[in-house]
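ENTRY TYPE: paired fold submission
RECORD: A
CONTENT: sequence, then structure tokens
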Amino acid sequence: MKWGYGLAVVLIGGVILTSLSFAKTVVEPQFAVALAQENVNTIAEQITVMIDGPGDEEQSKGSGVIIGREGNIYYVLTNRHVVEKDGDYQVQTIDRTRYLVNYRQIQKLPGLDLAVVQFTSNQNYRVAKLGDSEKVSRRQKIYVVGYATPGVVFTARQFIPAEGIILDRISVSKDGYVLVYALNVIQPGMSGGPVLDEQGQLIGINGLAEPDVRTGRTDLIAGIPSNTFRNWQAAIVPVTTQSATVTSTTSPTTSSRFYCGMSNGQPATLLSSIRGITPLIIWEKPDLISGLSPEQRCEEISARFQRFYDSGSLRYLTTGTVGNQPVLCAVSEINTPCSLSNVLIPLSPGTDAKSVLKKFIDLNIGLSAGLISL
């Protein structure tokens, strides 16, 4: 648990367009009937992992929640401050199996106290179901769990199930902490653990405690809403939104996110993620300048997506003209102009490149559920 700083501070950071995903966020439907407390705690224990970092420092001991799976790769959402220190980390699952974490694969979300950790296993572990944190209301009952750090009595880390109520939502926050709540128990080491609603759905990540300076009690605790992660998920683990039947023409691996496949019988640029396969672009027309067929355009542009992604250049999209042809370009810095070296998608003559870019933006932030056809 991260202790110490006040809640009424300004959220740091921002982004124009992260282009690692253009998928609309889908919110799981909320169920009207609450589960019994025992059932919620059972779900919580199955989806929560213990995280141990380098050395015996308390800051490197936390918790996390399994939020996705792709093949034998599992993805765990936790607090950034839990995995801040460089070194070896281990994740322990419900069956007490420990998995080594490659620190270079830890993805930290800018401006948020969130990070995604991955581990590899052939075992079947339960994945958390994301709820809609926008529907959270005051006085709503919640469940928060995690693994406490060792103490005087318990020398091993213990799984702690806590319950409480939502007190408020704050509009101005630091590091994404918006949900404020009270719990019947809170311990160091529970940072990164899930905040669940009465249906056992993930509505937040626990991580910040504010002790009362007069009494010493920890009456105010804060978490980051799950929808905040959804909004940034484009940069880490894109959400599949399309229900179209998709078949691969190649065999994507966990390191190959963009590739050419088929969507409803048409060549399509696909994005592979822990949530499945998302069609991004349907290729319908040949390129009149290069003479490439829709299938060839699919292969060529999908490979460009992957190449720019691997090089770290797929951060922002911009428009321009190269060789009198309208183009969409991938750039790593804002205000970088289009050039022959950063062209992502050559467009047909007369195409309004800005309108194509807007379609990508709308798809990215969830304003459009349709695919982009080129």
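RECORD: B
CONTENT: sequence, then structure tokens
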Amino acid sequence: MKSRVLIITDRNRKIPFSSIISFYDLQMVPLEEAARYDISDYIMVIVDLCSEQGTEEAIHYIRQQVPHIGILVIQDFVKPFNRDLYQNVQGYGQFRVMAWKPALTDKLANLVQTIIHPEYPVIQSRVAIVLPLYNEESRFDNVLNFLGKLQMLIETSFVNVSVYFINDGSRDATQPLVEKFKKAYLQRTTYISHINFFSSLALEHNTRKAGTYIESLTSIDADMFVFVDADDSFHIDDIAKFLNIIKAGYYDIVVGTKDMTTENRPVSRRVMSFFKRLLTRPLLPYGVYDSQTGLKAFNHAAAQNILPHLNVSSGLAIDLEMLYLAKKLRFRVLQLPVICTDRDGSHVRIVHDSLQFMKTLLKLRFHHKSL
């Protein structure tokens, strides 16, 4: 029995799906009848609607039923990039948009195959998810919770992903706990392709975050890099959203902002963030006002070109330095709101780190004046 693909279509584009995707059992239905079908019976969904509102309704319905199912949206070839479509999509499955014209039948077939079988992609994209760690022993349960969610993301939607622990000179039992987790995972997994899901690197000295970014970009070979706090502060839905946008190819860098969405955030941190935004905004790319939220994604070109200019002395301001360099090097940057929960046990020293941040802020223009 062939695997089944659901196609929600108004048939206006007259795409010959049955001849292009002949190796699957296709069920083509109009939007108004989609609710009659159980999305979980299908391995992916194609949305081919000329109406933007209809497209958004279809996506919302699909991901309400099955959050991890892959979706391919068909749009007209001349239609401009719609970032709102990516921003508003829910769930953590693959989400791709294809600009259609009759000459692209092979591309359509390849995209369908890539979404259905990410373990055998036609166009392979290697993703590195980087987790900076520092003295996480007392809250390693948060790290384990987050790793469980990442494992679900990897195994259901983004197979060609590796997770890297970058230990920033921890002085507690963080590294032994990481090694214990990796050993337990290897004993559980039955797939050779899963052996390299989790890797680790350890720095000799604490660099206040900057070294973890520089070491990962130096040591890891990947097509996309995601930097995210390891303490289960962020949702995998947002990580999936960032990856889908980078894969679309319109933006080089996607950064999160938690200013309007953070839960459990102390007043002192809110005040500090407010003043940081005022001071740093002139240094940031157009449309970006928050450099410090701990979730960012870079394509290979951006990561490769920014790396040579980074300074380990930047400390916690490494995020600001990366975005300042992105502006100077004219990379395309998109900022999106993300859901975030501030966890207890933060290693940020408000007064000391704020002063160091200000010093770095003053040095940035001087360090990179030749760009």
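NOTES ON RECORD B: The chain is about 40% helix and 20% strand. The radius of gyration is 22 Å.
STATUS: closed
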